[in-house]
Amino acid sequence: FQAEDGIRDTDRSRGLGDEYKRQVYGLCLCLFMGIFSCIPEAPEHKTEKDASAIVLDEDSDIIWRNFSLGRISFDDKAPHSKGSRIFRRLIPDTEVYIRQLSRIVLHTLYESPEEYIIPVHHLRFMLEDTDGVACKWGGNGEVAISCSTRHIESLFKDDDDAAKVYFEIRGVLLHELTHVYQQEPQGIGSYGTNREFRAFIEGMADAVRIANGGFHRGAYRPTGGSYMDGYLHAGYFFVWLRDYKDPEFLRKFNRSALEVVPWSFDGAVKYALGSEYHIDELWREYQRVMEEEK
Fold first, then answer.
1. Would you call 1 exposed, middle or buried from its count of C-beta atoms within 10 A (0-12, 13-18, 19+)?
2. Backbone torsions φ then ψ of 66, nearest 5 degrees
3. 132: DSSP letter
4. Cβ–Cβ < 8 Å for 181, 207
5. How many CB atoms lie within 10 A of CB 170?
6. Which residues contact 47 (CB under 8 A, 6 or more apart)?
7. Residue 247 preceded by cis peptide, ω within 30
8. Which residue of 208, 232, 236, 289 pairs with 178 in a disulfide if CB–CB is 3.0 to 4.6 A?
9. Helix, strand, or coil (residue 68)
């Protein structure tokens, strides 16, 4: 794959298609390639940089801890690569870490386990010596996430970069795990054929990452463009709607994919916020606020 995030989904009933999508985050423009001899110690997990202070409260943790995440396995296909050694030093227990992030993603997307949540029987996480950053594929309860060891290695200059790489791994996994658990629009085609579908899928994945500290505050927040561009354009917009219109917006917007058929952005916004709201008017308001905050 050639981008930070890709979906190759073999469950055609979910509509994502069976090819990698290739989109590049603005973040990728900041990467530097290189081979470095230093392998860092795991960073302290109390700094603002790693954003690990964003965790579930005790009651929510108990609720989601009892939710079955199925089997999670780790397959390191590049064990001799420097990126693999860096990853394993920073994330010594991959299964436990992915379970923790999965619960955070689920809590962001759903009010409770009582809602309909796509069942996952086996989540396979892989490290691979490939270009790009990460991708998710699979279906029918069997899904996989692959992360590039080259991308991990590319972020290093010296030991001081340990926290930066840990932060990036966490953010990428929040995005990809959202693809595992999010709902998908009905009645409008598929990821490969419909722009609204793609914008919703990728916008929600970045929104979950943003909402849980996966980007430094305000970093890479684009101005201009359209919510139809998905990714960060839509992600920051969705989080703004949560912050200023309805604290339950992300959950309601995710649920709209089941309740609004055929799905549309305007129909989903009306479902989440009320019939008096219009997606384009909200986008223009959001853009005005972004300009004022410059």
1. buried
2. -85, -5
3. S
4. no
5. 24
6. 163
7. no
8. 208
9. coil
Q: From the CB of residue 283, how many other CB atoms can be counted at a distance below 10 Å?
A: 21
Percent of the chain with pLDDT over 90: 72
Residue type (1 letter), 212: N
- Crossing angle of helices 249-259 and 231-244, in 10° steps, is 110
Checking if the pLDDT of 20 tops 80, the result is no
CA distances from 64 to 53, 93, 96, 180 (A): 18, 20, 14, 16
**Token pair recorded at residue 164:** 């930066």
Q: Can you say whether the dihedral through the CA atoms of 189, 193, 196, 198 is positive or negative?
A: positive
Q: Which single residue is written with the structure tokens 């927040």?
A: 221
Mean pLDDT of the chain: 84
Kindly state the helix (H) or strand (E) to which residue 187 belongs, with its residue range. none
Phi and psi angles of residue 64, each rounded to the nearest 5 degrees, phi first: -80, -20
Contact 134, 145 (CB under 8 A): yes
- Round to whole Å and give the CA distance between 217 and 287: 17
First to last CA, the chain: 35
Beta bridge partners of 138: 143
Global pTM value: 0.83
Amino acid at 62: I
DSSP annotation of 23: B
Q: Tell me the two tokens of residue 200.
A: 């919703």
Residue 2 identity: Q
Q: What is the pLDDT of residues 186-240, one digit of tens each?
A: 999 999 999 999 999 999 999 999 999 999 877 789 989 999 999 999 999 999 9
Residues 6+ apart with CB under 8 A from 233: 203, 222, 225, 226, 227
**Whether the Cβ atoms of residue 159 and residue 38 lie closer than 8 Å to each other:** yes
